[in-house]
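Lab notebook, bench 4. The sequencing result for the construct came back, and we need a structural model before the next group meeting so we can plan mutations. Quick request posted to the team channel:

Model the 3D structure of this chain.
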Amino acid sequence: MMIKMLTKRACSQFDVTIFQTPRFRERKGYKEVYRFTIPATNREHCLQETFSIFNVTDRIPTNYEGRFLATGDIIFIDEGRGGQYYYQLKPGGWFPINRIIIR
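Done. Here's the predicted structure in token form:
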């Protein structure tokens, strides 16, 4: 038990913002649909947790007004001093992107 506690990675709070277009598969017009914080060990874990929360009906927050996460949606992760990162869901997973795509 003690070894497990010592080797366990610390979770950090990630500030996450979800951007979606008004209609599925559009390439322009991204708007912020939801912002929240999520505990995760790293950015990859944060992306996995976000996807699992917003694609399982029972886990979606009641005040969420967007649709299920799908190809083309963008997630912004703000780590404060650690940097700001944008990821877009594409076939094959999450890929880092430039902020210019959101405009």
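The mean pLDDT is 89.
Will bring this to the meeting.
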